[in-house]
Amino acid sequence: MLRPGGHGYVQAAPLYHSPFGHHMFGFFDDYPWIHLRRTPAEILDFCRRTGRDAAIQEQKGINAADYIGFMLSTAHVNMRRLADYGLEPFLRRPDIKPVYFARTTQGENLLTPEILVEISGVGPEDLVTHGFELVFRQRGA
Predict the structure, then answer these.
(1) Mean pLDDT computed over every residue of the chain
(2) Distance CA 104, CA 77 (A)
(3) What is the per-residue pLDDT across 16-29, written as a single tens digit (0 to 9) for each?
(4) Which of 72, 116, 128, 138 would be 2's cystine partner, CB 3.0–4.6 Å?
(5) CA dist 135 to 9, 84, 91, 117, Å?
(6) In terms of domains, do 29 and 11 share one?
(7) Strand order through the sheet with 129-138
(8) Which of 29, 24, 12 lies closest to 103 in space, CA to CA?
(9) pLDDT tier, 141 (very low <50, low <70, confident <90, very high otherwise)
């Protein structure tokens, strides 16, 4: 809630469908969209084959299966696309005055035709939308 004339700030990143929307930073930097390209079981197998399971255990203090399971669960990530946040209708409300809005992108240079085939059902714009930042003002009564 804001008082009339008050300002609000909303920021979200990385969005789930972006290259690193899994939030498992440092473990899959060389495998963009791994969470959309592979099942959790396949990601775990990849970790075991590459020794990343040991790195996860050492750095996070839990086994790789539990870490991957939690990081890809709705208890951790909301799995929303930018459109799911309802920003456009919100910003059209007569009681809201947008002050600043920015959509950030990431991974345009990583998105290959092969990856697009692997990730069917998600468009390129959603795949490179990293997040957003919004400042708005509640108009006076």
Answers:
(1) 96
(2) 18
(3) 999 999 999 999 99
(4) 138
(5) 5, 18, 10, 36
(6) no
(7) 7-12, 129-138, 96-105
(8) 12
(9) low
